[in-house]
Amino acid sequence: MTWNWLGWLLWIGAVVFLCYVIHYIRVHQLMLIAKTGQRYTGNLVIRYVVLLVIAVAWLWGMSYLSFFRPVNYHDAQEVVTSTKYQTLQLGQVKDDYYYVKANRSQGGKHPVVSYTYWTTGSKNLTNSRYGSIADSDHYLSTEAAAYPWNRKKLAKKDARTNHAFAAVMTIRYRNNLLNGLGCRAGHVAEQYTLIRVPASNLIYQK
């Protein structure tokens, strides 16, 4: 069982409390008008403001924990990482063979939108936002270097596969109280694919 139940409970509480505040203000305003003919009094206005501030702060806090709180992928207290390694196979593109095919968009800021690569018995596709290619002397691309890879395993895989492999890292939120408050515990935070090729001429980019 994850801590997410606590987050869901607090979300429900925040929404119910906001509904209660709206109902409270409406009922008391109607009673005030019916009894005195006045539209507001100082004490009621202060009470309304305090209740609204609490309701908005509660909802903002839950929104921050659920959607906006940044997470350090290198912090083992916050996340759990796992990596799957696959050896690349040559795939046919038109009349030649490549390890990777760069798929381009018709326009826009990102001409390469995804990468297609081949492994034993399967054809794989990854979004270029969450994947990159290393085709230099080093097994890590500049973009991938920001992630918490086990570099010793990458180096061994690089040597064993003759610089032709894919490493898919899955980062999950750890099941702890803080992640549970944001209903994140156990969920995937990000999945990133590093594609290693021996040389750039083994990438189809036309």
From TrEMBL:
Keywords: Membrane, Transmembrane, Transmembrane helix
Transmembrane region(s): 6-25, 45-67
Domain of life: Bacteria
Protein name: Uncharacterized protein
